Amino acid sequence: MTVVPxxxxxxxxxxxxxxxPRDLAASLGRPVIPLNANESPYGHxxxxxxxxxxxxxxxLNRYPDPLARELRGALSRHWGLPEDCxxxxxxxxxxxxxxxITFLEEGDEVLHGGVTFSVYRSLAGxxxxxxxxxxxxxxxxxxxxGFAERITPRTKLVFLCNPNNPTGTVxxxxxxxxxxxxxxxGVLVVCDEAYGDFADLPDFPRTAEMIAQRDNLVxxxxxxxxxxxxxxxxxxxxxxxxVISHMRRAKEPYxxxxxxxxxxxxxxEDMGFLRSVVERVIREREELQGGxxxxxxxxxxxxxxxxxxxxxxxxxxVFHGLVxxxxxxxxxxxxxAVRVTVGRPEENRAFLDALKEVL
Length: 359
Ligand code: PMP
Fold this sequence. Notes:
By secondary structure, this protein is α/β, with parallel strands linked by helices.
């Protein structure tokens, strides 16, 4: 007899982030450009740093506010929703785990796209729920009609990633409205808008407005992407007071540390910085896509801070060729695809130069 984990975990592999940029640089003997994790290349706002330093100077001997009242106050002003409609946790990863702990019974179904953020699938495995994939449309976008068709009496959570990681596609306000009309009230629709800041689609869902009118829709947002605070680990959910109060029953009191709360608050106080990052990323994304077209590479038009490239059978060769040249990207081997994060202008040029060599 040995110690065994619960059965539903056995279909999951431990998360493998690959080598650290530093270690890869050492083994290649050259600098590397990390374009594999959809991080911002532009750092964070000075006001985030000021707030963090202030907390540090005051000392870390006291516990942080488990209710994150100051940050939730700022989020309430930012979105025009009551404070009780927000819950802050240890990155969106933490928020997603909390959604599972709060709502999933063993055997419940979690619906998500066939090619989407992998944590939705692992959530189901971690909690003994069933992950149900909805095949992507031919253009690599989420098939909202397909989602509606797959809802059963066991469906509890529906994850809609918008823009979708890794394919970069978006659905519109109208498409979301139409979908919601087909969803029974006991199914929670989770719009994961981790990359929402980059979605320059005129009709991008105004999810926060819709939340005020219904009980089974929530929006996820993070400070890890456009705000450039991936290392701090702060994400939040906006939803009805009822949904948020259920989640508070299950939340670890001190899951967000004092530095993280302070940094996120500072970041929210500097919308000028956010706007300048978003502008630069969008400009560079368009530039990068232009460069890809010029090389004749097929890709999915993106509304995020990354682009999904389709190489078919040669994706292995392309991926390894890029890594050898110090360009870190994410490989989706079984799909014959590679995802590249939009970097600084010179990083994107280095990526395109390396790609040209390996094609
Ligand atoms: N949702 C999506 C779609 C993501 O891509 C990510 C990060 N890769 C997350 C959530 C988790 O973000 P966080 O850093 O806030 O945990």
